[in-house]
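Sequence only, no structure available. Ideas?
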Amino acid sequence: MQAALWWSLEFPRGLCALSAEQWRVRRQWLRSGCFHGAAVWRGRAPWPDKLRRVLTRAGADWLTLCFDDSQAAEALLSEMRAHPLWRSETGDLLLAWQLDGQRQWRAGLLRWGRTLSA
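Reply:
I predicted one. Tokens follow.
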């Protein structure tokens, strides 16, 4: 009964929270890119400098978007892993594999961002 309640009430709530968090991150990314791009293109710098600045910022914003997006997904996976329904050996291995993949993805994004900023 408890598992049915969790899957019917808590899991959809978690998915809605994940979707809301991802939408918030995407809105912030779009707003940041638009305002920064508009400010750079209106500036007095030469065109090659403007293009370099816009592309550098776009790359950094994209990495931030991917990183923030994966944190929200990892929170939901961690909540699922704590649930008794997933405590079987197979379910635990599957969720552990997914969590490990999320962590490796974020670590790769961090390394990539540091390399690009150096």
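The radius of gyration is 19 Å.
Hope that gets you unstuck.
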